[in-house]
Every structure is written in structure tokens, then in C-alpha cells.
Amino acid sequence: MIRSLIRPAVGPAAATLVAVVGLAAAPGTALAQEGAADARRDSSAAERSPAPWPSALAGPDSRTWTVRPDGPISAVSAAVDSARPGDTVRVLPGRYRERVVVDRPVTLIGVDRPVLDAGGRGHVIEASAALEVRGFELRDTGTNPDEEHAGVMVRDARARIVDNVLADVYYGVYLKNSQASVVRGNRITGKPLPPPRRGDGIRLWYSSGTEIVDNTITRTRDVVVFFSDRLSIRENLIRDGRYGLHYMYSNNNHFERNRFVGNQVGSFIMYSTDITLEDNLFAESGGASGLGLGLKDADSIRAVGNLFVENEAGVYLDNSPRGRDVQNHFERNVFFENDAGLRTLPSVTGNVFRDNDFVSNHRAVEVTGGVGENQAAQNDWRGNYWSDYAGFDRDGDGVGDTPYVYSKLSEDLMTEHPPLRLFSYSPVVPVVETVSRFFPFLKPRPLVVDSAPKLVRGAFRRWEREPPVARPAPSATEPRSTRTDAAAGILLLASAAGAVGAARTLGSRP
Amino acid sequence: MTALRLLQRELRDSLRNYWFAVSSGVLVVGGLLLMLFGQPDQAILGYRGFARALAGLMQLALFVVPLLALFPAVSALAGERELGTLDYLLAQPVTRDEVFAGKWTGVGAAVSLAVLAGFGATGLVAVVRGVPPVMVVVLLGFTLLLGVCFVSLGIWISSLLSTRARATSAGLTVWLFFLAMGSLGLAGAFVGWGVPASVLEVWAFVNPVEAYRLASIAVLDPGVSVLGPVGADLLERLGRGPLIALALASLAAWTGIGYWAGRRAFAAPVR
Amino acid sequence: MISIDGLRKSYGEQVVLDGLDLQVDRGERVAVLGLNGAGKTTLLQCLLGLIGFEGSVTVDGQQAGPAGKEARRRIGYVPQRPPVFDMTVSAFLHLFSDLRDAPVEPATERMAEFGLPPDEVGEKQMSALSGGMLQKTLLALALGAEVPVLLLDEPTASLDPSSRREFVRVLEGVDEDRTILFATHRLEDVESLANRVILIHGGGVVFDGTLKDLWERSGVGGELWVQVPASRQEAAVALLRDRGSVRGAAEDGGGGIRVELAPGGAMDALGALRDRGVEVEDFRALSPALDEVMDRLLSARSVGAEKRDTG
């Protein structure tokens, strides 16, 4: 049992495994991979001249259908069935227990957020034609993993999904071959299932050129992107899921100002290249494989101005970049209060770190798992700020006079023998470090050598003074009881005062 | 009355113990320094890293609290034997069990008061600086248990030895062993001879210092990921609640064993 | 008041007390004598229940022993080496009065009687008191708690002569209905305090009686030192040597004569000198050493035993 766990890189490797297995299990995957090149060519063609929105099809004789619970048309599907391409369906407030199949281009407008309730079966809206949906509450999908029941399931059509509330959904928004779509301003909340049994908040399948903006996605499995390029993913809040944002075989992507909070992994980029991420917040990624940003077989990644805070590991590198001729760049990021700022497999090189601030991480860098020689220090480190740097700057140029060298015997030992991590925070660690200082032959291999460590925090200051994003309010799923806190505070005060008082009284009595 | 008077006397004696005073001072001052300056006033988006601050406090307690408990505890019986006051005390209308219970509760109360005062003061600063009070209180509770556990162990040692010097050096040996040497030896055996990892796992529960650390980390870091694969394995097999409970049970067990064995040893000259 | 029946105590192979019997009535003052290691202290420890033992021991009707809390409540104890608690005298008196459920005032009154007024010594540390003061403090505590029995283990052994005299004087003043049992090997203590002497040897009581009985039984008569005019010295020595009450006499070279007496022989020897007209200018009675008394008694006893065996 234990032995099996001691295999290298158990956490992240297992996570990767899950992701790959998930891919394999996805319907049509084998086919999809075979035809991936074709599909990509197709998709970029579709993006260049995207299919028209339903409203663009409206002609002079187009009409608006009104649905209301007590009206002549009391079901949305009835209105859709009657509509002609380009028509609009207005839905007045009320609860509509039905599943809607959209097989012709229509615009669905909810007035004062009517509720479409699938009653725990099937998709709420299933579209095979251009669709615009706005202003609805879509709820209670089925949970069949084979049919991937979703709040909005779109196949082979373009969709604009705006300002909806998707509650108690298995999958939230599922776009298959849906080029240049828009998913904006939705609030998606998954079913209260254990994470592995949840569906994805948003899932893209060959849906390049899509915009995913300003959504709040809570308690789903992943937001996951397969074979979809040139996406713009901005300003979303993704929390309490497994992989906040997961790229698989998706290139030329950009994501910025998203907030990933309390996920197992903030963002996991696998088998993808040319992805730029800017000004994102990666926070509170917990669990054994809790990562802010994970790269697996990912090339030409540019991470700029992001904040990694209170994660198990801020950034995780596994075989990224893959080749010697490519690099990944990390610039002006803040690694703050992570258990490990950077966690990397031993053989990973080719990453360039410039002007990042490593502040108060339990370990700035950690090499873990994997096989092969530890080459962590051969990544390119220069001009970063290290809060545990102990050197001076006599010439006052803002750069330390001696290189920053991160080398710890305990870290070396733990890398080689991961079970010894059990002794983290144990007094053994300082003992080992002290011993290693007295015996030069025990000198451990450095994990980082930064030849020009900065003495002033840059990126950190920026996040302090003008953060690109605000911290989200605490999630409703974990309410922090102010009453308990207050009680505990009073208890503390009383205990401290009581202890001093009791010691004085009892101690002084003859 | 008897028990209370014995407790009170022991409490008073403990509070006047020099090394007890020194280590309590270290706990209070160290804790406050840690809270005030260890975490410089840095926060981004309200993130302050309280878990790490509390982990620092936990590490401080790990070093100091066993020592703080051992100093008065080891001299409780041995010191009195050395002074020749023990027989006089036992010649009074008291029983040996009463005297033992008085020693234990008295030293225990003194140690608890020191921990409460130290942690209370530090905890208040921590709370003011944004640490959730519930966490501080939970950690405080664990630390009290750690203190009481080492009071039991110390009094057990004290019941076996006849001079303060001998008892103190035995106490320091136990402290060193539990604090670092045992773990270090085990880590060495693991690296050198391939002792199975399950031994590490068992050790983490058996050693009261490690058990305290384990329980505290499980509270501060629900994923216990700092503990690596063995930690992950423990979490997976036990779950977080039972893991904490097991670690605390180990502390409680040592407390009970120390009390029971010490009481037995103290009563032994009678037979 | 104290009833000991078949008391047996051994440390491993070594048997210290072997079937010891002893009855002590209220108000008796019993000196416990014995060679070093004879078990005097062990006897006291058994009474206090500081150690376990076999046999029956009661104090004022209460079972003594490790669990003999009620027996201990009736005993005031003054150990050979007074305990030095790390506290003030006043704290000490309060604590131990409380442990006895007794008010502290009688003890402090006794302290005042003993010349240790609480307002003078109360705030002193126990460690600042002299041995005599400590002994008196322990005694004051015991008397204050109205215990019927006092156990004293070599109470004067560690005191200088003046403290010893003072402590003995204090003990002499103890109310008559208190029972005192004390271990000692000082004849002065026995002479001034005891009205009964027991001698422990070989695990049991080999002698039980008065001091006079003890001397007679032991056959140790003591010594006399006399001074007669120089001209009569030789005659006096010869004269004394002839008396049956005298075992030996010799000039001490300083103008005096040392006379070794049979028990009770002092008056007879002095009378004989006077009758023969030898002027006794000065004389001093020298008490026999207690150790010698015990030696004699114990060797006589073993000789007697041999005789019995052979006879």
C-alpha cells in the first residue's frame, strides 16, 4: 500500500493520468485524434467566416414569440417548434418544467430570469442550430456520464450564451464543434457530487475562437478545452473545482485576469503550445496535488504578472518545455505563501524566470518525483526577488552582490526519498540543515542559482497597490461563521487573562 | 482539600522553577516576535498566509512546550527525594496516590497556564492580524495536550530517579530523542537500510511530538500535502478527522501511560 | 496507643525486623535503642507507613501502613534530618496544618512558646533556619495538630550541644498524655526523656524496661573519678581494689584515681573510702557509654544463649 504510493511524483502524475484517461474515455476520442488535423483546419476556416447569429437571420417577417406560464404558449419548446429561423422567443417569469431542443436558429430571451427546469433528466437546452440564450435560469440536468447532460449542449453550431444562471447542472455549457461562440456572464454551479463524479463547468470540443468571459463557475469538475485554439478566456472566477482551466491539445491561447480559487489545480496546461497567461490569480489550490498552474508537455508558455498565493505548489513543471529549442517564460509573477513556489520534476530545463518575486514560500523551489538527474538549477534564473535571500547590495544597484543559491540538504533528501517529507516542519529539518553546514561534503546540490537576485519587490508591489483583479468574496459553500470566530476570540482573551490571573493568585498564596 | 493543597503547592513550586520560567518566557516572547515580525506586514488581496504563521507558532511550541513541561515535572518527585522532603510529606495524613495526583495536576496546571498565557497572548495578536480564531483555539488545545503529555512523561521519569540532576538529564534525553534524534535515526535507517515507510508512519503517531505536529498540520493544511506521499497515504486511508483523532489519541495515550506508570513506580517502594 | 504484633520487614534477602512485638501505652516515653542498622528507623517508617511490611501495627486503634492515612493523622513526626522545604516558615505551617485539617494557630502559638514568634520567623525561608529551629518548628506543627503520638528519629543527632539541651527541654515540657517514641543512641536523651527503654537487635526487642534495668542487666556499672590526698593515693587504690563493687582502680597519673564500678557500686566505693578515713577531695561520676551498655548486654545475651544451648 505504502510502497505503491512511494512511486515517483504520485500527486501530479496521478492527476495527469486522470486527465489522460478522461480524454480516452471521451466519446469519439480516437476518431477525434485521428482527424484532429482536419478538424483544426476546418475550425479555423469556420472562424474566419463564422456562422451568423440567429438575429442576423431575422427578416421583415420574423416575429417574436412570447411564452408565459398562463399564456397561449406556455412552453418554450412549443414556441421554438413554431418559430422560423431568426425568430425570437421571449420567456416571461415563471417555472417551465421542460427540456428544450433547438433545431433552428433562434434567440431565447428570458425576462426577469425565468426558470427552465429539466427535472433531473437530460439536457436543459440542446441545440444543433445557431442559438442565443440570455437571462435564464437553467437547472437540474440529468447526470448520465455517457450522455454528458448539460445546461446548454451545443453541437455543430455557433452559440451565444449570456447572463444565465446554471444551477445544479451536471455539465454547464458543452460546446462541440461550435466555432467562435461566446459564453459570457453566466453563473454556473455544479451538482453537490464528489469532484470526480461531477461534470465540467464548461467543456469545449473542437470549438476554436470562442470567448469565455466573466463567468462564475463553482463546484464543477473542470473547465476544459480540447482541440480548441485562439480562445479568449478572461475575467472568469473558477472555484472549488478540480482543474480550474484545463487545456488539452489546444494551442495559441490566451487567458487573463481570471481568478482560480480553491481548485485542486488552478490551471493545467497539457500537450499544448503557445499559451499566454497574464494577471491571473491562482489561489488556495489545495490537496496533495494542489497546484496553481501545472504544465505537462507544454511548450512556449508565457506566464506574466500572475499571482500564485497559498497553493500547495505555485507552478508545477512536468516535461515542459519538451524540446531543447523551446522555452517557457515566467515573468513578473508573484509566488507568495505557497508550500512550494515552484515544484518541478528533476529533468525539466528550459524555463526562464525573470523578475518574479518569491515571497514567504515554505520552500521556494522543490524538485520532486520523476527519474533522472536533478537539473533544476539549469533553468535560467535571473533578476528574481527572493524573500529569504541573505546577501547584501553594497553598490546599491538593486541587485544582490552574491548569487541567490537555494540548496538544502533536507530538500535534497526529501527529493530523493519522498516519504521523508513526512518530517516537514519537524525539528529534524533544522537539525539536518545545521549538520550540513558543518560538513561540506554533505553540501547538497543547489536547486536554484539566481546570478542577479533583486533586492526590491516589483511584481509584489504591483499586486499590493493596483491588483489586476480583486479577491473574490468567500464562497457560499464554506461560510465562515463570525459568531464562532467571535466566541473563539473571546475564549482566547479569557484564557490568556485567566491564566495570568490564576498563576498570580495561586502562586502567591502561602 | 488535601488534593487541592498539594496541587496548589506544586503549581507554586513549578511557577518558581527557573527553567520553567525561562522556557515560558521563550514561548511568550518567541510567539509574539513570530507574530509581530516573523510575518512582516505583507498582504496581497487580503492573503496573509496565516497557516504559515501558525505553523511557525506550532514549530515554536514543538521545541519549547515539551521542555517547559519536563523541567518542573522531572524534579517534582526526584527533587523532593533529594531534598529529603518527600518522606516528611508522606508522613502526613495523605496517601501516595494523593501526593502523586497532586504533583501531576499541579505541574499540569502550571504548564497549562504557561501555554494558555503564551499562546493566548500570541493568539490574540494572530487574531488581530487576521488569523481565524477557531484555528488558534484548536492549536491551543493541541498544545495543551502536548504539554500535559510531557508532564506525565516527566513525572514518570521523576518517579524512577532520586536526584534532580539525574532526572533532569534523563528528561533532556527523552526530549532530544522525541524531538529530533529518534526521527533523525529513523530517517537515517530509511535512507540507509531501506526501513519500510510504514515504520515512519507508525513513528509519526507513536512519538508524541510527531503526533502533535501531524494533528496540527492536518488542521492547518487540510490536504497535508507538505507531508508528501506518506502523508497523502495516511489521509487517503484514514481521512482527515480520524487522522487528527488518532494523533491526539496517541498524545492522550502517552499522558495515560506516563501517569499510570509513574503512579505505579511511585507506589512501588511500598511493596 | 501503639500496638505492634509480629512486625516483619525485609529488603530482599536481608531481614531487618523479624516478628517484632511492642505495646506502648498512652503517655509513655519510649527510647528505641539499637546498633546501627538494627532497624530503629525502619520501625518508625513502618509506623508511618513510609514502607510496606508484614504484621499488624496500629496507632491509636488505626491500622498503620502505606494506606494508613488515619494512623498518620495521629502521628507527629520529626525526622533525623529535618526537611528543608522551599518555602517560608509561615507557608510551611499553613500547608502542613491544612494537610492535617488542623488550624494553624495552635502551631504558631507553640512556635512562640519555643522562642520562634511567627512575626519574627514567619517570612523567613525554611532554609534560613538552623537545625534546632527546624526541629522546633516540626515539633510545634505536630503539637499544634494535637497528635497523640510523637515519633522522633534521632531528634538531637544533628544539633549542637546548646540546641540539643534546648530541644530536650522543650520535649520535657510536652503534655503528659502524649506518647513519645524516639530512636536514639544518646544516653543523655534517654536519661532526660525516656521512662522506658527498648533495645532492638536481630529483628526483635531484646530488652524492654527502665534505664536502670538496662544498666543492671548489662552489667555495666560506670566509672568514678576520685581525688584523694597524694599521700593516701596508693592506699586508696589498694582499698578500692578489694571492694566487691569495684572491678578495677588505677591512678590516672594526674593525681586522680579512675574506678571502674560494678553496677550500683558508686556509693559503696565512696562509702568505703570515707569509712577508712581517706578524705575524698573531689569526685565525678562518669556515665557508661550507651554503646558499651548495648555491647555488654548483647554479648552477655549471646553468651547466655550459648550457655543455654550447651547447658
Structure commentary:
The complex is a heterotrimer of chains A (510), B (271) and C (311). Chain A is 19% helix and 32% strand. By secondary structure, chain A is α/β, with parallel strands linked by helices. Chain A has two domains: 188 residues, Pectate Lyase C-like (3 Solenoid), CATH 2.160.20.10; 201 residues. In chain A, the strands form four sheets. A 14-stranded parallel β-sheet of chain A has the order 1-2-5-8-11-14-17-20-23-26-29-32-35-38, with helices on one face. In chain A, strands 3-6-9-12-15-18-21-24-27-30-33-36-39 form a 13-stranded parallel β-sheet, covered by helices on one side. In chain A, strands 4-7-10-13-16-19-22-25-28-31-34-37 form a twelve-stranded parallel β-sheet. The longest helix of chain A has 27 residues. Chain B has 271 residues and is an all-alpha fold. Chain B has one domain. Chain B is 84% helix and 0% strand. Chain B is built from eleven helices and no strands. Chain C has 311 residues and is an alpha/beta fold. Chain C folds into two domains: 216 residues, P-loop containing nucleotide triphosphate hydrolases (Rossmann fold), CATH 3.40.50.300; 66 residues, Alpha-Beta Plaits, CATH 3.30.70.100. The interface between A and B is large, with 68 and 72 residues.
What is the strand and helix layout of this fold?
The complex is a heterotrimer of chains A (510), B (271) and C (311).
Chain A: H1 2-5, H2 10-25, H3 29-34, H4 36-48, E1 64-67, H5 76-82, E2 88-91, E3 95-97, E4 100-102, E5 106-110, E6 115-117, E7 125-127, E8 131-134, E9 137-139, E10 150-155, E11 159-162, E12 165-169, E13 171-176, E14 182-184, E15 187-190, E16 202-205, E17 211-213, E18 216-218, E19 222-226, E20 232-234, E21 237-239, E22 243-248, E23 253-256, E24 259-261, E25 265-270, E26 273-278, E27 281-283, E28 291-296, E29 299-304, E30 307-309, E31 313-318, E32 328-331, E33 334-336, E34 340-344, E35 351-354, E36 357-359, E37 363-367, E38 380-382, E39 385-386, E40 404-406, H6 409-416, H7 428-438, E41 448-450, H8 459-465, H9 482-508
Parallel strand pairs in A: 1-2, 2-5, 3-6, 4-7, 5-8, 6-9, 7-10, 8-11, 9-12, 10-13, 11-14, 12-15, 13-16, 14-17, 15-18, 16-19, 17-20, 18-21, 19-22, 20-23, 21-24, 22-25, 23-26, 24-27, 25-28, 26-29, 27-30, 28-31, 29-32, 30-33, 31-34, 32-35, 33-36, 34-37, 35-38, 36-39
Antiparallel strand pairs in A: 40-41
Chain B: H1 2-15, H2 18-38, H3 50-83, H4 85-90, H5 96-128, H6 133-160, H7 164-193, H8 197-206, H9 208-220, H10 228-238, H11 240-267
Chain C: E1 2-11, E2 14-24, E3 29-34, H1 40-48, E4 54-59, E5 62-63, H2 69-73, E6 75-78, H3 89-99, H4 105-113, H5 118-121, H6 131-144, E7 149-153, H7 161-172, E8 179-183, H8 187-193, E9 196-201, E10 204-209, H9 211-218, E11 223-227, H10 233-242, E12 246-251, E13 256-261, H11 266-275, E14 282-286, H12 290-310
Parallel strand pairs in C: 3-8, 3-9, 6-7, 7-8
Antiparallel strand pairs in C: 1-2, 1-4, 4-5, 9-10, 11-13, 11-14, 12-13
Helix pairs in contact in C: 4-6, 6-7, 9-12
